[in-house]
Structure formats: C-alpha cells, structure tokens
C-alpha cells in the first residue's frame, strides 16, 4: 500500500513539474508551444481493456475487464484543454481455491480533466492528462454473499496520442492509471482491504469542432 502511494505521488509530482516548465510569461513562446487550436471542442469515444494493478482483496482473483470512455474537452489556448471524462469498467471477481464466482464489480468514474498538448509531430499529437473525481462502485453478486463496495476518490493520469486524419477527425490511443482504493460492507462485516485501482488501455476516435 505504501509503495503504491509513493508511485502515485511520484507520478503526480512529475506532472506538476512538467506543467511548471511551460512558458507562461511570453505570448510569443505560448504561440510556439502547443498541439491544438484555441477555442475548439474535442469529443472522444474510446473502448479497451482494464487489468487491476494488484489483487482486489486477499484470496480473490479478478478478470481483465472491458473499459469504455467518453470525453469532452475545450481548448483554452494552443496547449491547454479542460473538460470532463465519463468512464465505465467491469471486473469479474472470484475466490481462489476453491474457485467460486462471487460476481462482478462495476465502476463508473466521473472525472473533471486537465489535458496538455505540448507539440504536433506531423499528424501525431501527443498529450498527457490528469483527472480528479469520484468512482461510483457497485457489485452484482452471483452467490448469497452480499458485497457493497464504497464510492471512492478517483485520481487518473493518462498518456496518449491522436493521429489526425483531417481537420475534423482523429484516431486515438491512450494508456492510463486510475486510483480506486476503498472498502466493502455486507456479509461478514466491513472489509478495508479492497483496492480496484487499474490500468486502462484505450483505442478509439475523436472529433474536433
């Protein structure tokens, strides 16, 4: 647990350092820096898969689940965008030895987002984004065991690139880490060892307006 928090702090610190290096004092340098056009809306739809970063809870096994992501961003200038993400993922959960299916956990994440696009590399536009929000967790049981996961604080850090097909459309790939660390209540009382933090691998498209 401590090691995971150190990794999260380090990733967040690197992001902050990256932002602090952006030239904000000069209009000319701001115009040279950037991979997007100011005043444009970006709408994205991506799908992919999502493995957990660790064991969900002691004695459990978790499947690699599907992942669906919607986003809407607005470019404030040539390099900074702000907006929202809505993300859904599902993981099947079972008990190890003997193998008993418990059910599946669904997570809907509501994520206000900040995105930085430092440059254009031909048709490729790399970016990094960071989101803070809430994970809304639920559990669908396949047994008489009742499991109710808590809603948790969401912190998401993503890296990706767009490949511009034309002025309106782009293909997209993105990799992200998302924190989802909480507890469950139900049969057997409260379980504080319940961590559904995950990596996300997304593929899809974007539209620019």
What fraction strand?
A: over 45%
* Terminal Cα span: 43 Å
- Tally of distinct domains: 1
Poorly predicted runs are 19-31
Specify the structural class: mainly beta
The mean pLDDT is 88
Computed CA radius of gyration, to the nearest angstrom: 19 Å
> Could you please say which CATH topology applies here?
Porin
Write structural notes for this entry.
This protein is mainly β and 209 residues long. It has one domain (2-208): Porin, CATH 2.40.160.20. Helix content is 12%, strand content 59%. It contains two helices and twelve strands; from the N terminus they run H-H-E-E-E-E-E-E-E-E-E-E-E-E. It has helices at 2-20, 27-32; strands at 41-50, 60-62, 65-75, 80-95, 100-116, 124-141, 147-149, 152-164, 169-179, 181-186, 191-195, 198-208. The strands form two sheets. It has an eight-stranded antiparallel β-barrel. A hairpin with a 4-residue loop joins strand 3 and strand 4 (80-95). The chain is elongated. The chain starts with a helix and ends with a strand.
Summarize this structure as a short list of keywords or feature phrases.
single chain; 209 residues; mainly beta; Porin; 8-stranded antiparallel barrel; 3-stranded antiparallel beta sheet; 2 helices; 12 strands; 59% strand
In a nutshell, what does this entry contain?
With 209 residues, this protein is mainly beta. It has helices at residues 2-20, 27-32, and strands at 41-50, 60-62, 65-75, 80-95, 100-116, 124-141, 147-149, 152-164, 169-179, 181-186, 191-195, 198-208.
